[in-house]
Every structure is written in C-alpha cells, then in structure tokens.
C-alpha cells in the first residue's frame, strides 16, 4: 500500500537532537513561540528551528498565528507530546534503542574487565600445569613418550561473572559516581568517554539566550567569552563573530559614534513577555546578571579515569600480575619440545591474544596519559582566554562601556501578544477576514 503524504510523520525526518531541543524550547515558552524563541533557547540555526516547528505542528495539530506586523507564531496543544509519541513509531522505538545501547556499552565494559580475570586464571593455571607436567616427567625418568598433564580444568561461567551486578542501572541512578571493579578495569585502560560530549549544543544555547536576553543587539566583546578567541589579533578584526551571524541570521550595524554592533532581528521578536531593558547591568553587575546565562563558556577537562585510587591500585596490580605471568608463560612455552594436548594446547593457540591483551593493558593508558595532558593544556588555555574576556566585561574601560551602553540603547524586544494576532489557522478564514475588515473600518472612522 502506498503511503499518502498526509499519513507521513514529518517529525521522523528531523534529527532526534533537533526535535528534542525544539520541543524543550517550546515547553519552556508555554507552547506559544516564534522561530527566534526556539532558535535562541535551543541554540538551533533559524532554518533548523523553523523546520522543526513546522514538522511538530503538522504532526500534533498545532496551529499558526500571524501578527499585525507579519510575525508568525506557532501554538501547540497541551497534549502535543502525547499526540506525537502516539503517531511516531520512531519515538516509540527510541527509548528501547537507548536502553539497548546502554546495555551493550555496559556489557563491553564488563567483558573487558572480566577478560583480565580470565587471562590471569588461564595464564597461571597453564604455568602450574606445565610445572606439574615437568615434575611428572622427571619422576618417570624421561622415558620419551608423549605425555598428558593429567590436569583437569573446569570453570563454570558463573564463577567468572559472580561480580556482574544485575541491578547496575538502578544503582547508577542512585549513585552515579560509583562503578564496580570490572568496570574500573575498562575505565583505567580506555577512560570514561568525552566529558564535553554535546557541549557545542550548550555553547550555542548560551549564545542564543544571551543575545535574546539583551534585546537582539550585542557587541563582539560580549560574545567573545563564549567563543574560541585566543589572541588579541583575533579580537581586533572581529571575524570570530561570523559563525554567530550565520547561525542566528545577524548583521553588523554602526552607531552614531562609529561602534560596530550586531543585530539579530529574528531574536528580537518573541511570544514571551519576560524581558525588560537592563542598561544598569553594564559593568560591575554584569557577572551577576547576563540574563541568567553563564558569563563564559567553560569546557571540562578530560579525566584519566573516574576510578578511586584504591580500585586503580588493584587494577594496576592485577594488570602487572597478568603481564608478569604472560612473560613467564611465554618463556615456558618456547622451551616445550612436545606440546601436550588438551587445555595447555588450547592456551597455546590463544596465547597471542593473551599477549596482546597484557601488553595493551598498559600501552593504551600510557598513550592516553600523554594525549590527555596535551588536550587538557589546550582546554585550559581556551578556558582561561574566555574567562579573561568575561572579566573585561565586568570592569570595562570607557570606550567599551560606551559601546555596551550603545548596544543596550539599540536593543529591542517586541512582545507579540494575543491582542496583536490578526490571523490564526485554528479559526475559519472567512470569520477572520470579516473581523479584519471591521477592525480596519473602525480604525478609519477614528
């Protein structure tokens, strides 16, 4: 059966993060928003915000309102999220996919830690078996016949996985900073992931909210604490502001004193009435205000591992024990003239894997340590530069203060209330057309 256009779920075409950020912004504004509201609050590009609003409105029965100046507002019903989930198979599936992904990541982490225990057991059991075989050979006077170690190795899977925690996810919600031992093995070798994952989204949210909270007109110096501006030369030409202009559809303007300011018209039109001029917050109180936005963008440093020192010492000790055992076993296997069958033969076959595991157990962390040292130094440099830009705004010199005041003078935040709506897709077009003509007639009589 051919799917008709009207049956398509438009929201499914959106990237999940764009959809979720747009919906969070819609909720924060009480489900009545302009494109600029969503763009500034969610940190989305204007065209991304527009597409997201159109798709969500199409799927949830949202409607449009048009003001007397041509501004378009999107209005959503209270149960729009419920309607969207009921209509979108993708949104029903996403929670299960997220749980499956989290479970798979947990299994990988635990499996790597489990491999350390397995490796130690295999290596030292084989060493004991070889020593036992040599002792038996000596006792039998080396009669030259092939031998079997006579060693029986039996290990139940439950013996290896007794420390797997079946209530891991529940405990993680209660105590997010703790991890069990086998997880700490993975953490020591590979780390715990990027601490700044998704932080670029947060950066654009901060920038969008700052611009909107200042009436859509800002200086380059005000945005520098949120961008990567390291040198004085970069600050002088203000080219670092271009990505912000492109994202939020801004343009430069020159005031009567020759200062270059940046206006963002789309962020000056809002469905929210919570805004007021704040010229008095230029200078000392800037750090206490900035519209509730962080006064500079700060990246997190990478941690080598989140494991506790005691757990880290245990991991290093067991890793060293395993490496030592692999070295000893390697020497012993080279001296074996006739390879026994059974368990020892099995270990001999997989021994290259045991060597790789034992060697990488320390080689990977060593490489990460050097890499993280360099990465954290660069992060610290960027954070320090942004903090310095923020401090310059706390105590601006005379020229910067005049520039900031000029931006506040040019700031404009237009609230689009219900009284300014001249057309809505929720109501019949002929009724609205009649009301518009009646309003125009009364206006002319006045």
Notes on the protein architecture:
- The protein is of the alpha+beta class and 446 residues long.
- The protein has two domains: 117 residues, Arc Repressor Mutant, subunit A; 267 residues, no CATH class.
- The strands form three sheets. The chain has a four-stranded antiparallel β-sheet. Strands 4-6-5 form a three-stranded antiparallel β-sheet. It has a two-stranded parallel ribbon with strand order 7-8.
- Helix 1 crosses helix 2, helix 4 packs across helix 5 and helix 5 packs across helix 14.
- The two termini are 60 Å apart.
- The N terminus is likely disordered.
- It comes from Sarcandra glabra.
- InterPro entries: At5g03900-like.
- This is Iron-sulfur cluster biosynthesis family protein.
- Keywords: Membrane, Transmembrane, Transmembrane helix.
Distance, first to last CA:
60 Å
Please list the strands of the largest sheet in the order they lie side by side. Answer: 1-3-2-9
Shape: elongated
Helical percent range? 55-70%
Q: How many distinct folded domains?
A: 2
Main β-sheet description = 4 strands, antiparallel
Query: How many β-strand runs?
Result: 9
Could you name the ranges where pLDDT drops below 50 across 5 or more consecutive residues? 1-6, 142-176, 283-287
Class by alpha and beta content: alpha+beta
- Overall mean pLDDT stands at 81
As a whole number of angstroms, the C-alpha radius of gyration is 33 Å
Series of secondary-structure elements, N-terminal to C-terminal? HEHHEEHHHHHHEHHHEEEHHHEEH
Strand coverage percent: 5-15%
InterPro entries: At5g03900-like
Keywords: Membrane, Transmembrane, Transmembrane helix
Organism: Sarcandra glabra
Transmembrane segments: 106-132, 313-333, 353-372
